[in-house]
Amino acid sequence: MDYPNDQAPGAPIRSGIPEHGRIPKYYAVKAKVASLIDELGEGGLLPTERDLAVRYEVSRETVRQALRELLLEGRLRRQGRGTVVAGPKLEQPLSLASYTEGVRRQGRRPGRSLISLDRFPCPDALAPEIGVERGEPVWHMERVLLADDERVGLESTYVSVARVPALDGEFDPDSSFYRYLSEKLGIGFGDADERIETVLATPREALLIGTPPALPMLLIHRLSRDTAGRPLERVRTLYRGDRFSFTAHLGQQA
Hints:
This protein is an alpha+beta fold. The protein has helices at 25-40, 49-56, 60-72, 99-104, 127-130, 167-170, 177-185, 203-209, and strands at residues 76-79, 82-85, 90-93, 110-121, 137-147, 150-160, 189-200, 216-226, 231-240, 244-247. The two termini are 37 Å apart.
């Protein structure tokens, strides 16, 4: 296979065009709009569907399908009644660093908005994951994740009340939970297991994050342990698929 000289590393081979050369009409329009996006730059206002249909001599439905994919990929975003060029995706490292630290490293302002903080008896399935017995009290903290005041995710944290007894009184829900554990309680993170999958948000989750239910989400399950190896927390985090990518450094094992 011949590779174009200007093939960008990581881009689809031959720009995703099949060897037989026949491509769907919407995909050709999508490629043209993608070039227009590069010209406009972040925040640039895209022409209307009608204007694009006239420009590319296609139906509005063809334009709509092309824009739908670019919206799902995070290249565009809705703003009022118009469509503008989105900024680059947030890169979140797959590490023990907190969300706050990851966003701040990219020059964005992290934040969280508390939805609920509840205390309840621990059910069977959760007990071994956070190192408690069935029926012992646990906290569930749910927060919307923010980046420069934009809603980008939803986080649910489960932790034993015995480990964090004053969570409802002395913790600022807009701040880093990891920093609170480390600096206030002297609890250090040792390691964690994470699992990533692609899901669709429930109607409630989509409402809290402010996205359409059809927008793909990246779901991360995390089980964390302290430096002594004891279970510490269970976290379920939804990230907007159009606003996040994840990075990891891989090394050869001994």
